[in-house]
Sequence to fold (133 residues):
Amino acid sequence: MAIDSDAGSCVSADIAAGVPPAAALFHSLADENRLRIVQRLARGEARVVDLVAELGLAQSTVSKHLACLRDCDLVDYRAEGRQSFYSLTRPELMDLLAAAEQLLAATGHAVTLCPAPGGTRPDDARPTGQVVA
Fold:
């Protein structure tokens, strides 16, 4: 499933373009709205209308990201009458996100300060590739 460039791309589209699967997975989770949807679904299933209300996103945005997550086999839904209830398909995803939180805590969230290649960190004047002894 293709997603517009403002929202990032899905794992399957990235892999088809030759991106390694792990990089494609992390790229798909790098979108803040998709990550918020995943975090919300970790607490239990939800309808699009629930996600719109809880996350403050437009219905079209939620639907687009759910479609991407479904395409990635990370989310699925069950129909009940005219309603669809979305849930996570892979409990391992929550393990991955918990490990990411632990890594952020261990690094003092320094990862959030990583500049573009060749740039400098705001708290440090040395180039990013330089090792400090």
The beta strands are 75-80, 83-88. The helical segments are 11-16, 21-29, 32-41, 48-55, 59-71, 92-106. The two ends are 46 Å apart (CA to CA). The CA atoms of residues 124 and 131 lie 12 Å apart.
